[in-house]
Structures are given as C-alpha cells and as structure tokens.
Amino acid sequence: MRRLKISGLALMLFIIALTFTGCWDRIEIEDRGYILALGVDKYDPSDLNKYESKEYIELERKTEKIPPDQKKPEIRTDKKGIDPKTKRKVKPPLPTKENQYKFSVTVLFPNLRMMSKTSKADEQMRFLFVRPTNNVLGIRNYLERDINKRLYYGYLKVVVLGRDLVADPGLVKEVLDSLNRDKDIPQNTFLYVSETTARDTLNTMPLVQPVTGIHLFEISKNATVYGRIIETPLSEVINNFINSKCAVISRVEPGIETLRIAGAAVLKNYRFVGWLDEKQLIVYKLLMGKAKHTLIDELKYKSTYVPFITTEVQTKKKLEDKNGRIKVIYNLRIEGEVNQFVFQSGYKVLEDPMRSYIQSQLEKIIKQKANEVVNLLKYKYDADILGVGNFISKRKPESWERLKKNWDDEFKKVEIVVVPDVRLRRSGTIY
C-alpha cells in the first residue's frame, strides 16, 4: 500500500513537471521585441510634418546607415493617416478636437536576426518606431497591430524624456506613474532628460554601440568611476520626489553619430527648473557621497596644472539647531592622488611645503565651488535636491514640524556649511 502511494505521488509530480515545463508564457524568443529604450516627448501638432522633411530624411539616412542608392519613400497622408495612393492607413491620424494626443512615444528594440547565421551585412541592427498616443505604455498595444512582434518591457534599460515634456509637471507625473506601476518595467531602468527631444536622442546611432539603449545604459554604469556622470534609476527618482519633491535626472546631448552624457536636469514638483553642468554635478556628487572617483583639474601651481583624482570620499552630515536657526554641516573627507605633470623646480609633491600647498588650495577650490552650487539651489532653483529637509526630519523631528509647512522659504534660511578635508596620498611626478 505504501509503495502504491509513493508511485502515485511520483506520477503526480511527473505530470505536474511535464505540464509546467517550457516557455513561461508560450512565446518564443524570436517572436518577441525586447524594448531596450523608450523615449517620451510632449506631442507637437507640427511634429509629423517635421519628420517628413527632406533635411530629416537625410539625417535619418546617415544615422540608420541607409545605402546611398536606396531612396527613402516619402509618404504623404491625409489627416486620418491614409495614403491617398494606396488608400491604406499607414500612420496614426493627426489630432483633432475630438482626438488630441498628449505624448509622442519612441520605441527602440534590437534586431535579433542579426545574431543568426542568415543575417545580411546591410541589415539594420535595431528598429525604431514613433507614434503619438495618450498612454505611454499603451503604445505597445498600438504597435503590435503594425509589427509581427510581441513587445516586452522586461529588459527596458533607459527612458529618455524630452525637454518640452519635463516643462509640463502634469505630463511628467503621468509618465513616472505609468512606469512605476507597470510590473514588467525594472525599477533600475535609467532615466534621462534630453537637451532636445527624446526622438532625436534615440534616433542617433552611436559609432561604438549602434543600439542606443545599450549605449546609454553602459555609460551610466560608469557613474561611480566618472564624476561628470550620475546614474538616476527610476526607483531613486520617484523616491526623491516623494521625500523632497525634487529630483536630479541625468542629461543627454544628442548628436549625429554620438551621444554625450554629462551634467543633470533639476526638477522640482515634477517641473524642470534648470541644469547642473559637469563641474556643478561633481560638487553635488561630493556632497551626496556619490563621487568615489572624480577629476578636479582647476588647481594651478605657477604655470603647471595639477590634476587631482579622488580615490575615496566620505561625506558626514551634522545638524545644529541654535535658537531656531538651523545649520547643516557637510564634512568631506577626500583622499586622492595627483598625476601627469612635471615640476621644473624639483619639488617633491609628497613633501612639505608642496603637499600642504596642494591640499589647502584644493580645499579652497572645493569649498568655493560647493558654496556656488548651494547658492544656486537655494536662491535660483529653489530646489532641495540635497535632501536637507529629509535630513532634518530624521534628526530633529520637532524642528521639522515647525519648518515643513513653509519649507520653500525656510530652505533659503538654512545655513549650509561645507568643510572639505583633502589628503594627498600618491604622486605621479616626473623629476
């Protein structure tokens, strides 16, 4: 009897394993379109006409590597998106009073046929589609009527927001909310703000890595190495908006055959308020404890520039509340090295007075730059991207209860002091 029970249990387990083994959703790999990059712009009624112009067709031919002898068809449609020659609907209809679009969404996914033995040398490495829509992620359902792929967001690497879009807080909220709610989208997807449009950014085909989504993702992974780049994953941006109503999103500058990531966009209450350039971003990362390796190249000794590379950065914050006046102190412990310079005088960098001079001058430079960034955030952008309010709420909850009702004005009154302590450890001097 016992053997019979064991045999029955084994048979049941075999049937269950046989039933549930295989592709989890019964969709083959080659039948999927793995979306690597998503671009979201604010819809412009003149947008479609712009991208049918002769100038843009020439730009598209360069970026998509279209052979010179191949002519790109110029399809003209009526307001309903119907080609008058073939009578077929080839484009989404133009907006009307009854149908006014909010977004222009760009979708990019790689061509998996390029990995097969039957791929052709002149075959495109990626596919890029642009559609106007009122629902950012719903664009997938629209495109699946036009292409023979099941689009999937599970491998989404980057989302690029257009410059016009981030000026509209209502649209930014909609985009972030839809990205955060979708169960397929990874929370570590990197966000970017384009200096122009998201479409132009994703339409660029970089020489090093033609698949734009992978190119942007791999650059952002180096943010801990390069101080001029900051990684801004989806989850972090949303948490920053929740905690301080402000966020920093990495900036991308599109070109013809290159993309440059440097600096960041500052947003407050889901609205773009200004940029941080590369050097300002370095200071911001130092204050936030995110700049492990970065280059400071503004120190000059006589006619010689002394490049300083940080190797370790420790940021400790201290809060003081005296007679209702709040003071936040940033103690920066910075270790680093100097390299690639020659002194004609024969000084040894690691010996005084040269070592003391370099350390003291670097401390002055960092303190000056930090004060400039703090004043920019307090008085021009009025954006607490440093998380000062969140820090006060944790350390001095009773003080925060008094300040939070009118934090925009109180933030300007908070005294922020930066105290850098630079330690020079190694030298690359040639004598």
Automatic annotation (TrEMBL):
**What is the protein name given in its UniProt record?**
Spore germination B3 GerAC family protein
For whether the record's keyword set contains Ribosomal protein, the answer is: no
* Spore germination GerAC-like C-terminal domain residues: 263-428
Alphabetical GO CC annotations of the entry are: membrane
- The Spore germination protein N-terminal domain extends over 97-253
Keyword Signal present in the record's keywords: the answer is yes
Native organism is Caldicellulosiruptor saccharolyticus (strain ATCC 43494 / DSM 8903 / Tp8T 6331)
> By its UniProt entry, which Pfam families does this protein fall under?
Spore_GerAC, Spore_GerAC_N
Name the Gene Ontology biological process terms. spore germination
